[in-house]
C-alpha cells in the first residue's frame, strides 16, 4: 500500500477493539505524528500485549478493512485514517483491556512492572535501537522540536493569525496559547478561530490552556500558523428576509 499525506487535523479519534472481542470500546484520541511502533507501546501499557505479535488493522464505519498498520517506522497520519474509524488490535498474547466495558475487568501494568518485562515493546525497542531508542531518530526529533520552538518564540499572544493546512481553506483566528501540551510532542499554538471550526474550548484532557467558546479552539503546529494583520471578517448577513 502506497504512502499517504496528512491533509486533515493533527489528531484522529479512533474506536478501539481487540482480538478478544470485536466490539468497539471507548474512543481514544491519538496524534497523527506518532509512529506505529510508539502507538503499539501506548496500547501495550494498558492491554498487556506484545510488540512482536501485536498487529493493527483499521476499519471504517461499515466494518470494511481500510488498511493494516504494518510499517513500525511510519507515522499514523501517513495512512488513510479518519476520525470515527475503528482500530482493531490482533494479539494472541493480549490480556485484559483497560477500555471502558462493563463486563471486562480493567488491567493496567504499573511502570515498575512494565520496566521488568523482557518481552515488552520498550525492551524490544531498546534491544533493536528503534523508535525513541534510535540515535538518528532522537536527533531528528530534537531538530524538529528545536525548529518548532524557534517558530513558536516568534509568536505573540492575542495576535491575529492565519492557519493554512494542506488541502483545506485558510482559517483566520487569534493566538491564545504558545508552548507545550501535556502528552503531546513538541510545541503547539492554541488558536481561537473566528468561526466554530475548532475542536474544543481551549481545554484538552481536562486541562484548560486558554479560554474560548466551544468548537472555536484548536491546537496547531507552529508551521501552519502565520502571524500577521488579518482583520476579522464580518460573517453576518445584512440582507433582510
TrEMBL record:
- Locate the transmembrane regions by residue number: none
The chain positions of domain CAP-Gly read: 179-221
- A Pfam family annotated for this chain is Ubiquitin_2
Localization per record: Cytoplasm
User: Per the record's keyword annotation, is Acyltransferase included, yes or no?
Assistant: no
Keywords in alphabetical order: Chaperone, Coiled coil, Cytoplasm
Recorded hits in InterPro entries, A to Z, give: CAP-Gly_dom_sf, CAP-Gly_domain, TBCB_Ubl, Ubiquitin-like_dom, Ubiquitin-like_domsf
**A GO CC term assigned to this protein in UniProt:** microtubule plus-end
Q: Name one GO molecular function term.
A: alpha-tubulin binding
Q: Write down the superkingdom of origin.
A: Eukaryota
Write the protein's name: CAP-Gly domain-containing protein
Q: Which organism is it from?
A: Henosepilachna vigintioctopunctata
Amino acid at each position: 500500500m502506497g504512502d499517504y499525506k496528512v491533509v486533515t487535523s493533527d489528531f484522529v479519534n479512533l474506536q478501539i477493539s481487540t482480538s478478544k472481542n470485536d466490539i468497539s470500546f471507548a474512543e481514544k484520541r491519538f496524534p497523527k505524528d506518532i509512529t506505529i511502533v510508539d502507538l503499539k507501546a501506548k496500547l501495550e501499557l494498558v492491554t498487556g500485549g506484545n510488540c512482536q505479535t501485536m498487529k493493527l488493522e483499521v476499519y471504517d464505519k461499515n466494518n470494511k478493512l481500510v488498511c493494516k498498520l504494518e510499517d513500525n517506522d511510519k507515522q499514523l497520519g501517513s495512512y488513510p485514517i479518519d476520525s470515527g474509524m475503528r482500530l482493531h488490535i490482533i494479539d494472541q498474547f493480549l490480556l485484559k483491556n483497560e477500555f471502558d466495558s462493563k463486563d471486562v475487568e480493567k488491567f493496567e501494568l504499573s511502570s515498575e512492572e512494565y520496566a521488568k518485562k523482557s518481552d515488552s515493546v520498550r525492551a524490544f525497542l531498546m534491544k533493536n535501537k528503534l523508535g525513541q531508542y534510535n540515535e538518528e531518530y532522537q536527533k531528528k526529533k530534537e531538530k524538529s522540536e528545536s525548529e518548532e520552538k524557534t517558530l513558536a518564540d516568534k509568536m505573540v499572544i492575542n495576535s491575529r493569525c492565519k492557519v493554512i493546512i494542506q488541502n483545506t481553506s485558510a482559517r483566520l483566528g487569534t493566538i491564545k496559547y504558545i508552548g507545550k501540551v501535556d502528552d503531546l510532542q513538541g510545541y503547539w499554538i492554541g488558536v481561537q478561530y473566528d468561526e466554530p471550526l475548532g475542536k474544543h474550548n481551549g481545554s484538552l484532557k481536562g486541562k484548560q490552556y486558554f479560554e474560548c467558546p466551544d468548537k472555536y479552539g484548536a491546537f496547531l503546529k507552529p508551521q501552519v500558523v502565520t502571524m500577521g494583520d488579518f482583520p476579522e471578517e464580518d460573517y453576518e448577513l445584512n440582507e433582510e428576509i
